[in-house]
Predict the structure.
Amino acid sequence: MESTRSSETATPHQLIAMLEEREEHTEDLALLASLGLDFLLRYKELRMRYLCAMKEIRTKFEVLSTELGVRNDRNPIAGITTRLKSTTAIAEKLHRHGLEFTLTNIEDHLRDIAGVRVVCSYVDDIYMLAEALCTQKDVTVIQTKDYIRSPKPNGYRSLHLIVSVPVFFADRALDIPVEVQIRTIAMDFWATLEHEMRYKKPTKHSEEIAERLRLCAETIAKTDLEMQSIRKEISSSSRPLTKEEELIRKIQTLDQPFLR
Ligand code: 0O2
């Protein structure tokens, strides 16, 4: 959105985007209050709900991380990040879908306002974690997009889930959707750099660059599978620990998972 737009002719949603872009926005705030304070308050309430749902799902993965770290000798979860879609990104996405920036359209058409990304060690961890989340009684799976079995044409790989989770507020409980992305460290490495370089940039890279990025994604995918197979081979060929060795190992790692 252009920064030279007049705040007097802007709609409430354009003003919100302007507020995010500027440091000095007292004038816009005053105008927004006169034009759409009711809208702004309801929008703020809506964002709060998605924020809470995001916290619920994040906590579920943190619990899994602690549990799996204690039960097994390795924790499959390398990191968890969360993000609430920015107002500008919401406006852009609605616009791409030919929809107005209204609260109803946000609720009815966007299911990725709240996002949780889980980065794990191996490809089989991805499916194990997805299963562990989706089989929880209060979680409803709305959609699964497996960009690992069916990568995007540019090479992008990740498992995407849209789940809904009940959130208990002071006066009621609401089911709220959250987008969960689960990927390996290697997939995350590719996606992060590719996002910076290419994804949704107004000018597209040349065919040659796109092809090089796709080849990088393939190399990474092969490496992921090779690392997984090496891990399996090591664990199947290592001799089982004696009772004494196991005891010493458990003592040595007793406090570790709780430090995360
Ligand atoms: P953010 O917050 O910047 O990550 P659409 O968003 O309309 O294109 P859809 O069906 O909502 O499509 O989403 P999809 O395909 O499930 O993917 C949505 C999210 O996955 C994106 O979020 C990215 O985070 C990630 N993603 C999808 N494709 C790519 C890709 O080719 N490269 C990279 N690096 N990431 C990808 P947003 O909306 O971009 O927002």
Observations:
- Residues 1-7 have pLDDT under 50 and may be disordered.
- The chain has one domain: 49-259.
- Residues 83, 85, 89, 93, 112, 145, 152, 154, 156, 160, 191, 194-195, 199-200 surround 0O2 (CB under 6 Å).
